[in-house]
């Protein structure tokens, strides 16, 4: 039981680090308990992000978000402009985003986050590979200055020119699959992706300290329970 609760308690512990609700903050998370929480495509289609009520990584009635490409839209991409995912990532101390993902399609994916802001578009330099039929998998994608590559202009998004300016004023966060990188829009592929527990996390040292504190708390709880 404790092991099943750990991911949710980790999110709760991270949320205690910051109390800023109107912009990006460590611990901000989407668990899709009621809706898709701002994730969207440019146009509403059969591939658009949808809340699925059961079958998430927690099993049973754990909800998650699913989006696709190849029917309603060409590219596997979902973006969010809600206040929880925009603002000053640098000041907030957010250097990565953790999430649970499930590739239910027949095409291997190369997952990246992309952001845009005053300094143009930027995308994860290194992708996280997710094989076809992967099952639920927990991943962490860095989103700090050293982990991002400038993209070319894409629609209303300007080419990347200054990563610090963009991280200081993010206006859109985007989850894509892109094999080649330096691509803000994502690849044109046929795919379906499940997503849950999308969480803003700090640099690894801070994250480790928080998890260590959680571990001590669990140990104390078990000692009391076994007394």
Automatic annotation (TrEMBL):
Leader sequence residues: 1-23
Keywords, comma-separated and alphabetical: Signal
Annotated Ice-binding protein C-terminal domain residues: 200-224
Positions of region (Disordered): 39-58
Presence of keyword Signal: yes
UniProt feature, compositional bias: Polar residues: 42-51
Classification via Pfam families: PEP-CTERM
Matches recorded under NCBIfam families: PEP_CTERM (TIGR02595)
Protein name, as recorded: PEP-CTERM sorting domain-containing protein
Annotated organism of origin: Rubellicoccus peritrichatus
């Amino acid at each position: 039981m404790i092991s099943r609760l750990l991911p949710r308690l980790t999110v709760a512990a991270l949320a205690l680090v910051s109390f800023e609700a109107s912009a990006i903050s460590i611990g901000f998370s989407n668990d899709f308990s009621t809706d898709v929480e701002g994730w969207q495509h440019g146009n509403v289609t059969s591939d658009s992000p949808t809340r699925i009520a059961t079958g998430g990584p927690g099993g049973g009635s754990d909800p998650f978000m699913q989006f696709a490409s190849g029917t309603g839209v060409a590219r596997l991409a979902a973006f969010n402009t809600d206040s929880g995912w925009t603002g000053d990532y640098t000041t907030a101390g957010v250097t990565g985003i953790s999430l649970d993902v499930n590739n239910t399609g027949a095409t291997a994916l190369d997952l990246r986050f992309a952001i845009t802001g005053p300094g143009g578009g930027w995308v994860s330099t290194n992708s996280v590979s997710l094989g076809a039929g992967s099952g639920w998998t927990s991943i962490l994608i860095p989103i700090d200055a050293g982990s991002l590559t400038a993209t070319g202009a894409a629609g209303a998004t300007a080419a990347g020119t200054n990563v610090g300016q963009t991280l200081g004023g993010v206006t859109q966060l985007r989850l894509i699959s892109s094999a080649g990188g330096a691509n803000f829009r994502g690849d044109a592929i046929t795919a379906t992706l499940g997503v849950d527990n999308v969480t803003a996390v700090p640099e690894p040292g801070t994250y480790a300290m928080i998890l260590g504190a959680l571990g001590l708390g669990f140990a104390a709880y078990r000692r009391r329970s076994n007394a």
